[in-house]
Amino acid sequence: MEIIEQGLHILMHLNDHLKTWIAEYGVWIYGIMFLIVFVETGLVVMPLLPGDSLLFAAGALAASEGSLNIFILIPLLIVAALLGDNLNYFVGHKLGELIKSKKKILFLKREHIEKTEKYYEKYGGKTVIIARFIPIVRTVAPFVAGAGSMKYKNYIINCVLGAILWVAGVTTLGYLCGNIEFIQKHFEIVIFGIIGISVLPVLIGVIKAKREGAAE
Fold first, then answer.
1. pLDDT tens digit string along 66-105?
2. Which residue in 21, 25, 58, 128 has a CA-CA distance of 20 to 30 Å to 156?
3. What total number of domains does the chain contain?
């Protein structure tokens, strides 16, 4: 419980913690943020690290404090996201048949992979791009793409496009908004808003699935 409370405190005051980390670690802050993005996108068991909020906060600090260089930040974190996604894809590719042969391994169920395969068949590669903007889903989607039947050639094109849109888009948004007084004074409200908008597609999907299940 204490760990969860600490995690929420860091998330809600991410800009203050980033300032502290920059003061303590200097240029190594780029490596720390690289590692956070890489782990969140690359390890399917670590889906709860801050992604959107970290990018937004880093962009805001680059604008308001000047302690981060956005022209280093964006390319670096795009590379982190791509490396993480590709690791996730190939781990999923190696373990896909094992998961399908069993009902469940850890929190991964065979039915989840089968459903996601159908989703990929219906919506194609754009699923990879859409998933990038949804917490938890962006961590699981590359794994499932590898475990399923999605060809790497189709995956990597959308993976690169999704990484560029996600990192550049969210970081630039933070950069453009970083000097707005309301955002500086009420950063925790902004973070709640980002999280709410990010998880909204998941909530809509769950509600829709329940309604369809009830109708059947």
1. 788 999 999 999 999 999 999 989 988 887 777 666 666 5
2. 58
3. 1
Residue 110 in 3-state DSSP?
A: helix
CB atoms within 10 A of CB 102: 10
Residue 71's domain comprises 2-215
Residues 112-148 have pLDDT tens digits of 666 666 667 776 677 788 878 877 777 888 888 887 7
Burial 201-214 (b: 16+ CB within 10 A, else e): eeeeeeeeeeeeee
pTM reported for the whole predicted model: 0.78
